[in-house]
Write a structure and sequence with these properties.
The chain is mainly alpha-helical. It has helices spanning about 1-20, 70-95, 100-115, 120-130, 140, 145, and strands at about 30, 45, 50, 50-55, 55-60, 60-65. Strands 1-4 form a two-stranded parallel ribbon. It has a two-stranded antiparallel ribbon with strand order 2-3. The protein is elongated and about 60 Å long.
Length: about 150
């Protein structure tokens, strides 16, 4: 069972050396998926330095977990959106104009909602995602202003 992992590591290190790339073992992470997670193989080492084994990590802004569920990513996304909505609420209370509030919403909140979505489905998603009904103002719920 360990032999394929060791062979893959050796191929990975050899090909990185062929392209004059140095693998930083401190920044490299190992994640085990599937049934191998129940009886994990020994830790990988690169240049006599162990590679950290993780259950979750963030790659290009997407949280990936070894159980292949989206819970960690959705929680992080909801936290960012909630923070943005809180600041939107503060800006509204301070008397910012509707145009400025809409600009803040599109640049801070909506960009977080749409990040990581496959572009071929972007139009479908943009038509589905609408702001959360936190405020009862007409500009906030108006679909014409969100386009």
């Amino acid at each position: 069972m360990n032999l394929p992992i060791v062979e893959c590591r050796n191929i990975w290190i050899t090909s990185s050396n062929n392209y004059c790339m140095v693998i930083n073992s401190k920044k490299t992470k190992e994640m085990i998926l599937g049934t191998a997670n129940k009886s994990p193989p020994p830790l990988l080492t690169i240049s006599n330095s162990p590679v950290e084994r993780v259950t979750c990590f963030k790659l290009l802004g997407i949280n990936i977990c070894n159980n292949l569920r989206w819970d960690a990513h959705v929680d992080a996304l909801c936290s960012k959106v909630a923070s943005g909505l809180y600041f939107l609420k503060l800006l509204k209370r301070s008397g910012l104009s509707a145009d400025d509030l809409l600009c803040f919403y599109k640049s801070v909140i909506r960009s977080v909602q749409l990040y990581g979505i496959i572009t071929s489905h972007m139009l479908k998603v943009i038509n589905v995602i609408r702001p959360l009904p936190v405020f009862s103002t007409t500009w906030y719920a108006s679909p014409s202003l969100l386009g």
